[in-house]
Amino acid sequence: MSNVSYFTPEGLQRLKDEIHQLKTVERPKISQQIAEARDKGDLSENAEYDAAKEAQGLLEARIAKLENTYANARLIDDSQIDASKVYILSTVKLRNQKTAWR
Fold first, then answer.
1. Cα dist. 87→2, 4, 33, 84, 95 in Å?
2. 33-74 pLDDT, tens per residue?
3. pTM (2 decimals)?
4. Which domain does 23 fall in, by range?
5. For the domain that residue 39 is a member of, what is the CATH number?
């Protein structure tokens, strides 16, 4: 099931950066933790190994979710948006005309 997500260029770059961070920094870190725990001996009673494998599963699920979001991302072109209307997920500022400072 694909859900389209709309991003500004900055938001899309943050998403790419997070995916890159998880893959290049966090994934090797967890692999190292698994290797260290594996070196400690019997895996059936190794709580550190179980915790590292659990963390690896959560990390891989997070990466898969972010990659799916990135694959279904659509870039918003600010120049094509009509600023005279409010759309879903728009950020607006309201000003009270009666008490506004002039």
1. 22, 16, 47, 10, 18
2. 999 888 887 767 778 888 999 999 999 999 999 999 999 999
3. 0.73
4. 5-80
5. 1.10.287.180
